[in-house]
Structures are given as C-alpha cells and as structure tokens.
Design a protein that fits this description.
This protein is α+β, with helices and mostly antiparallel strands. The strands form 4 sheets. It has a 6-stranded mixed β-sheet, with helices on both faces. Strands 3, 12, 14, 16 and 17 form a 5-stranded antiparallel β-sheet that branches. It contains 13 helices and 17 strands. Strand 10, helix 9 and strand 11 form a beta-alpha-beta unit. The protein is globular and about 65 Å long.
C-alpha cells in the first residue's frame, strides 16, 4: 500500500472563507441520423439560470503557506517520476482549501490511447490526460430545466485508509431537436498533407463528411478549406439547400499532397468563416488533421494569435478532430484550448460518423462560455486533496469570478466530470465540500452560477460498490493513472489496484453494465495489462 504526504499546518480562517464562498455562489452512435442525446465522445448526461440575480462578488480569500502535497508515496512532493508528466499532485495550501479549473469536454486522449493499445503499444505517458479518460463516458447526472448547469457531488472510499474519491458532475440541458437549433455554419479545415494519405486518415474523414452533408439542414452552411504547404479555400461558406452536390464534389476531390502548414490552414479557415458569417448562425471552425505540423508556424499560440480578433469578436470556436496513428496530440489540444473549443480523436469509420454526424449537428449551439468550476473543501473534515488531471486547465482561485479570465465552452447535452482524491480527517463528520460552476451566457455574456454540496457520510461505502457512474469514473481514472506511471506498483492514486486487478474489476463492470463503451474500456485495460 502506498504512503502519502503529511498534512502540514492547519488554518482556521479557511472555515470563514468556505462559508463566504458558499453564501456567495447562487448555490457516439454508429450511424448518421437520429438517436438519443447520449453519445460517446461528447457525453450527454437546478433550475433555469436565466433571469437570476447577479452573483455576489467573490470574498477576499486569505492565502497561506504550508502547502500540502500528495506525492504518491515518492516523498518528492509531486516532483518525482509522476511529476515529469505534468501532474504536480499539489494539495491546496491551508487555509483556503480551494480548487479552481476551467471546464473541459475533450476526449481525444482516451481515443488516442485506445488506438495505440490496439496497435500493440503503450501510449506515451505525456499524451495521457486523466480528465479526458473520465469524460469519455456517459453519466446519469440530473439535468437542469433550463439553460445552465446542474451540479452533482458524490464519492466513496478507496482501499487506502482515510482516502476517498469525490466526484463533481456538471450537466447541461439536453440538446435541442435538429429542427430547433440555430442554423450552423461549419468551416472544415482539412489536412491534405502527404501523411494524411495513410489509411484511416483523409479517407475516413471524407466518408463521414459526405454522410454528414446529407444529414445537415437546408439552412446550414458548409465551407471547405484545405492545407498542405499552402492553404486554399476550396468551397466558401455555402448554404446547403440545393447545393449539396457542390459540397460532395469538394469533399470527394480531396487528395493528399505535400507538407503540413497547419498555421496557414487555421488562418485561412477563420478568414473563410468570417467572410461567410450570417447573423443568428452558430459558426465553428472544424480542424481535421494529424497535427504533425512541419511547415510555417508550428506553435499553437502563434497560430491562434493571428486569428485572435476574429475568434473574440465573432465567437467562432475551434473543434479539433485528430486522426492517425502518429498524431500531434499536444499541438491539437493546445489549439483547441486557445480556440475556445475542444478535441476528439477518431480511428474507425464508426468513430468518424459519430463525431461528424451526431456530435457536430447536435452540439453546435453553445450553452455556456468561459465556464469554470471551483470546489471548496471544508478544512474541518478534509485534510488534503488532489484534482485528478486538468493540469492544463487550472485557474487561479482569485480568478474564479474574473470573467476576463478564459474558461471552457460547453454545449447542450454535455456532462463534465472532475474527480478528486481526498483524505478526510479522523472521525470526519458533517459538511465535506461545496462545488460551484460559473459561466457566461453565450449571447448576453451575463454571468450565472450554480452550486452543490456533499456531506462526509456520502463516503461511507466502497468505490467498488458504488453506483455505475462512479465506478466507471474511478475505473477510467485508475486506468489513466496507471498509463501515466508505467512500471509503478498500481499508479499514484490512493487505492490504485494495479492493471491486473483493475482489468478484472472492469470486466465485471462491463458484464453488469451491458454498455459497449464500458466493454471497450475493459478491453483496453486488458491490453495494457498484457503490454505492461
């Protein structure tokens, strides 16, 4: 059994800050066509947030020293073997006991890991982002009645004494029916570099894009921009109506050619989106690439700085679709984060049809802009904690209610899950934590908040005997943890069972759940155990 970092000094002012915060916070299918709201890769899962009173400003939270660190038993304060992958294992400094992060609905890391394992290789630990594993599965959180979020907080004990997993679940309203959403203007920026000629890249995207074109509405618009060593607008934004053949011809005519000037492709894509934009239409740039940039600008910040004005003024978000066994994961993730969007990864025709035919048409409309979450742990009951993943999405605690600070963009029908490892104090009883989500209305930019609480008695049972959703979340998190710590004894999370035991747990869960996504998770864990 692993040992964990020591507690450090206690602070009493945290209880005052926690009370102030609590009072202040208003607390993928295999074919194109119909289908339910839940789909792998953009998981679907409180009252209407519109018209509420303005939120009370955040309290002046004290910040203290004596930082706790959960170091996974290395004694290094989070700078050992696991720290090199960007996972700091930091524990919030007493007395504030706050954790703040921008919401993230990316799932590319999990999809790419599955692809790598299927090819008989363990994924590079640097490409494993635990939050994207966790958010790749359907959750049954309650949904809000209107525009906004519901907040669900629960948890269970791990096999390590005093350590628990606490889950924060956020859900938006279901997606509107296709006929009720606003018209969409989709600018596809498609990589046609030489590497895209390999099977499972450009051909896969062409097939799915062609089917998607037949499923979009007449008042939707599509543009096609291609890039290799240079970028070209093959088709300007064209309202479908009677022009679907023009879109099909543009897609069918794509052929791989030279090198990868991704920067030129993104810049031209945004220019095309702005030139063809219409009022009352949701605009999105969809980048389809293996993100192996080798010509022109190859830095995400530099690429997106050139389109910053269009992105901010016109609210055009970037959706990154990764393809290929060799894949520039870090660049694509950074592009999506800076482009106010998200990423996914496709490796099969089923994946591609799900992304282009289900996710895009249904989730184009945004529910929330610059969404952030802040969790306040009660210092009376919680000794230390660690947010699992979200390494690139952390926000300074004092910036939670600073709406100039970037958050995440979330659409209808999405769920967002954050998981914490929490060590409770001996005999802990009573309030454990309050989770608050803050977001801006995508049209009016009016801020809204919603909160949820959890008590210590929610942790009475074992995580392996909890409800299906929490068990799946824990299994996915332990899997990511093991992949980030290859060769370790079960990973760094408390209660980590090791890949062999985790494989058995996942197999039993898949049998009971009768869920294809959970079955695929179990198979991936089994393959990782074989390769480890």
């Amino acid at each position: 059994m692993n040992r964990y970092g020591t507690e450090g000094r206690r602070g009493r002012r945290g209880a005052t800050a926690l009370l102030a915060l609590t009072l202040a916070g208003g607390l993928l299918l295999t074919g194109c066509g119909g289908g339910g709201d839940a789909s792998h890769g953009a998981k679907d899962t409180a009252a209407d947030s519109r018209g509420g009173s303005a939120p009370v400003p955040a309290p002046d939270l004290p910040r203290g020293g004596g930082e706790h660190r959960y170091d996974g038993g290395t004694g290094t304060g989070g700078t050992g073997e696991d720290g090199k992958n960007g996972d700091s294992h930091e524990i919030a400094p007493d007395p504030d006991h706050l954790s703040t992060f921008a919401l993230d609905v990316d799932t590319a890391s999990y999809g790419y890991a599955r692809r790598t394992l299927a090819e008989g290789r363990l994924p590079d630990p640097a490409t494993v982002r635990p939050e994207e594993f966790v958010n790749s599965f359907r959750q049954d959180y309650d949904r809000p009645g209107g525009d906004g979020f519901s907040v669900t907080v629960d948890g269970a004990r791990t096999d390590d004494e005093d350590w628990s997993l606490v889950r924060v679940g956020l859900a938006t309203r279901p997606a509107e029916r296709r006929s009720e959403r606003p018209p969409a203007a989709l600018t596809f920026v498609i990589d046609i570099s030489g590497s895209m000629g390999e099977p499972g890249r450009l051909d896969l995207a062409q097939e799915a894009l062609g089917t998607m074109t037949d499923r979009l509405r007449d008042d939707d618009s599509v543009a096609v921009v291609t890039f290799s060593d240079e970028a070209e607008t093959v088709l300007p934004l064209t309202r479908l109506g009677d022009h679907r053949d023009r879109v099909h011809d543009a897609i069918d005519g794509l052929e791989p050619t030279d090198s990868t000037n991704l920067g030129a492709g993104v810049e031209t894509g945004y220019e095309t989106a702005v030139e063809g934009r219409r009022e009352g239409v949701t605009n999105r740039v969809v980048l389809v690439s293996d993100a192996l940039a080798n010509t022109g600008d190859t830095d995400a910040d530099t690429i997106l700085e050139r389109v910053a004005t269009e992105r901010r003024e016109h609210g055009i978000t970037l959706f990154g679709v990764g393809v290929g066994s060799d894949y520039g994961d870090a660049l694509m993730e950074r592009l999506a984060d800076r482009g106010d969007g998200h990423t996914t990864y496709v490796s099969t025709p089923e994946d591609a049809r799900e992304v282009f035919c289900e996710q895009l048409p249904r989730h184009i409309e945004l529910t929330a802009r610059d969404a952030k979450a802040q969790v306040a742990f009660d210092p009376e009951t919680v000794a230390e904690f660690r947010l699992v993943g979200y390494d690139n999405r952390q926000v300074a605690d004092e910036d939670f209610r600073d709406d100039r600070v970037d958050g995440g963009e979330v659409g209808p029908g999405h769920t967002v899950t954050a998981l914490y490892a929490v060590r409770t104090r001996p005999g802990a009883d009573g309030h454990l934590a309050t989770a608050t989500v803050r977001w801006l209305d995508p049209v009016s930019r009016t801020p809204h908040e919603e909160s949820g609480d959890v008590e210590s008695d929610a942790l009475d049972g074992s995580v392996w005997e909890s409800g299906r959703g929490l068990r799946v979340t824990a299994t996915a998190a332990y899997f990511a943890d093991a992949l980030r710590n290859p060769g370790g004894d079960g990973g760094s999370l408390p209660g980590a069972p090791g890949l062999s035991a985790l494989s058995e747990r996942a197999d039993g869960l898949a049998d009971r759940a009768e869920d294809e996504d959970v079955r695929e998770l179990a198979e991936a864990i089994e393959e990782a155990d074989r390769l480890a």
